[in-house]
User: Fold this.
Amino acid sequence: MTRHRRRRRLVVQLMAYAWMVAVWVLLWGDLSVANVIVGTVLAFVITTVLPMPPIDFHGRVRPLGVLRVLGHLLVEVTRASFQVSRIALRPGPAPRGAVIGVRLRSHSDLYLTITAELASLVPGSLVIEAHRLTGMLYLHVLDAEAAGGIEAHRASVLLLEERVLRALASDDELARAALPVRRAGSGRSGRPRRRMVRS
Amino acid sequence: MDSHTWTTVADVAAGACLLGGSFLAFAAGVGVLRFPDLLARMHAATKPQTLGLVLVLAGLALRIRSAPAVWALVLVAIFQMATAPVAAHLVGRAGYRTGKVPSETLVVDELTADVRRAEAERLGRAGTPPVDPEGTGGA
Assistant:
């Protein structure tokens, strides 16, 4: 098991390196050997001088789930922007807000962080406090009297968390969050890898 | 279609993106000005502002059409999407903790209720009977 864990840490570290080198190359705007070398040196210096606390990640990345999260994010960000714009531009007083607490089902810092980030971008809600020990997320709702009201917002945050867990969590973590492990979602186009044959 | 047509299509799309982005940025500004409290203002400052900026960047990318510049714009968009919620969280949290959010303007305020309950429990352990936070603690 330790060898497995060490390999996983190495993979995470290599991904962080690749990201930093990519940012460096993108900032300079041209892919040259010199840029890649300097980027690698910088990535090494940054990770040794400013080490990050290790991320406690035991999950399994499901590409289809990640795509689903990103797709929903795109739609929701657009909806949120137009909703806030409409409220800002329409005449009359602003709607009354509310602060609600939502208890998330998983207790991982990583999923709490991702859910909180995404919840701030989707319509209606803004995270103002996250309590990692109890897994509570406190959100401000812009229009508390809108369709569905407070309970609808609570449900939408939980749905968001479920999507994040389905994209990243392992079967074990899903079970502990009391979410049924769904094979159909990833199985339909995942497991028996289909080869696309051009005829 | 020849290259001239494609240039026109890209230019029109760029114009649409720039106009849409400017509209959202304008709405964000109006929201920051008009909304009554700090937290409502943060809604305006994060959501339409983020998408507005991304649309303006997309419009620029369609107009400039040079790879290095476009990649730099992609980076700006990624960092904006990643940092705007964190910034809003920190401002909201700081404002809430320093009492800049009047609890009575809210329909429900479960955070204040939970904080009161936690304090009541702490006092209760110290010997004073716990205070029921006006029945809001049930949720």
About this structure: Residues 3-126 of chain B form one domain. The mean pLDDT of chain B is 82. Residues 46 and 87 of chain B are 9 Å apart (CA to CA). Chain B has one domain: 3-126.
